[in-house]
Design goal:
8 helices; TerB-like; mainly alpha; 0% strand; single chain
């Protein structure tokens, strides 16, 4: 699948928003962001600098992300949830933001809740699975 530059940028931005929702950036979150940012084609110096200033950056707009394709949105929700689960403490703020992003992209609340339940019931399986982005790029 061909992913636009805007969708790639929004994917990374969304991951960064999720990572900062709990006001800390765990090493597990950094690892996921690095892998996905590399796959999206971002330079390591760009995303490393962005992660360093992430928590203090007041200029990141945290509106839900709108993607150009539903498959990209579903992939993002999957990877975003994996990111949220990676530090072993998922907050209601992280879940709420992901849910709003799903809804903005036309993903039903039912789909999101079912996916969330499955992910919470088997977090180890979710964390050890391949990133959804890898299957669409």
């Amino acid at each position: 699948m061909n992913i636009t530059t805007l969708d790639k940028s929004n994917y990374l931005k969304g991951l960064l928003i999720i990572a900062r929702k709990d006001n800390q950036l765990a090493e597990s979150e950094k690892k996921i962001i690095r892998k996905l940012a590399d796959k999206l084609g971002f330079a390591s110096d760009f995303y490393e600098e962005t992660m360093q200033s992430l928590l203090a950056n007041k200029y990141i707009i945290e509106d839900p992300i709108k993607f150009t394709d539903n498959k990209i949105a579903e992939s993002f929700i999957s990877d975003g949830l994996k990111l949220a689960l990676s530090d072993n403490k998922v907050t209601d703020i992280e879940i709420g933001w992901l849910k709003n992003t799903a809804l903005v992209n036309g993903i039903t609340e039912e789909w999101f809740e079912k996916f969330l339940k499955k992910s919470k019931d088997t977090p180890g399986q979710m964390l050890n699975s391949e990133y959804a982005l890898f299957s669409i790029i």
